[in-house]
Amino acid sequence: MLEYVERKGTCSSKWDGLNETFGADGLLPLWVADMDFRVDSHITGAITDYIKTGIYGYYVIPDSYYDSFIEWEKNEHGLSVEREWIRYSPGVVCGFNFALQVLTSPGDAVIVTTPVYYPFLHAVTNNDRRLVCSELVNREGRYYIDFEDFENRIISEDVKAFIFCSPHNPVSRVWSADEISHILEICRKHGVAVISDEIHHDLVFNGSVHTPTMSLAAKNDRLIMFTSASKTFNIAGLRNSFVVIRNPEVRAEWDRFMTGLRLNMGNPMGYIVSEAAFRYGKEWLTEIREVICGNYEYIKEQFALHLPHVVMTPLEATYLAWADFSYYFSPEEIQPFMQDKCRLAFDYGSWFGGDKSGSFIRINLATRRENITEMVNRIITEAGCRL
After folding, report:
1. All domains in the chain, ordered by first residue
2. Secondary structure (3-state) at 185
3. For the range 330-335, what are the long-range contacts, defined as Cβ-Cβ under 8 Å and sequence gap of 24 or more?
């Protein structure tokens, strides 16, 4: 049974870090992507057993850690991963920043498909690469890749790498095998390396099936895949992510770079909780998926009744709803309304790039229904007063 945790006052970034991002406290937080539910008891048990040893010295990563990930990828996603392909990163975000250093040079063009998780944008500019954006096509709330625009921009901007979000955050899209194959074909044709962020690959809904990018790639493709148990099982604070590199030349480049950083392994607790999650967390994951879907359907139903021109993107993946308020609010109005009038904290569409998302909000669904109900009621009430 899932257990909701009151996180305010626990040094939670989501609940206690509001002022730094929004310049205000006391908002109901539905922004940064972590959950408000206690982790599976097997995870707690595994980390408790380690703590009880009373010795926290240097650690040897057990084979069972790698085996748990390999088995999970095979059983859940049909992807066969070999042990020698696996490397460590403290997180997926820092991982794709590292990958840009490995696969590109300063001044190189890097393409993303917007709107997209905003650390993608920051990674390109912060590493002195040139940002190229190909905007996704929004058709009645569902998003599609504009392959013609994507390829034309690669050619005209001499793009060297593509950071691929699969499933896509924030538009909740699970890319089909055909779409991924087409992306890989274009990148291969023009010598573009692919950095594939698949951290949400376990959180898929409504019959959607995630296809790992690596399962469709050629053996010599310059491809690095990133994923983690962190989003799936709410353990992001323990800083443990998987880097999967099949191409031996790319793997050697990665190893040279990481050796220079002296960053080849992480905290013991990150390995311990990741293994426990993969081994025992399936039932917990089933429950959290039900909560996420239920919260999404409730929001969609209430907005349809009271704010019928809000367009909710279909929930295919992630625990993040993407809602279009452009009928009611301009890009300049959306944050003041949600923050100052409704006292709510969201990730706003303008953060994610692109030209057409300024009146969108991204809603964290991984919380108790009472918080979702309160959010919906505040928006409906304040919008009614305004409209």
Report:
1. 13-40+283-386 (3.90.1150.10), 55-280 (3.40.640.10)
2. helix
3. 330/358, 330/359, 331/358, 331/359, 332/358, 333/359, 334/358, 334/359, 334/360, 334/361
320: left (phi over 0), alpha (psi -120 to 50) or beta: beta
Query: What's the pLDDT at 206?
Result: 87
Mean pLDDT for the chain? 96
Q: Which tens digit of pLDDT belongs to each residue from 281-334?
A: 999 999 999 999 999 999 999 999 999 999 999 999 999 999 999 999 999 999
Q: What is the DSSP string of 201-259?
A: TT-B-TT-----GGGGS-TTS-EEEEE-SHHHHT-GGG--EEEE---HHHHHHHHHHHH
Name the token pair of 321.
Answer: 């709803």
pLDDT of 56-78, one tens digit each?
999 999 999 999 999 999 999 99
225: left (phi over 0), alpha (psi -120 to 50) or beta: beta
CA distances from 1 to 38, 40, 287 (A): 10, 9, 8
Phi-psi group of 262: left, alpha or beta (phi > 0 → left; psi -120 to 50 → alpha; rest → beta) = left
Kindly give, in sequence order, each residue whose CB lies less than 8 Å from that of residue 138, ignoring residues fewer than 6 positions away: 356
How far from the centroid of its chain's Cα atoms is residue 225's Cα? 13
Please write the tens of the pLDDT for every residue from 8-47: 999 999 999 999 999 999 999 999 999 999 999 999 999 9
Angle between helices 369-386 and 282-306 (to 10 degrees): 20
pTM score, whole prediction: 0.95
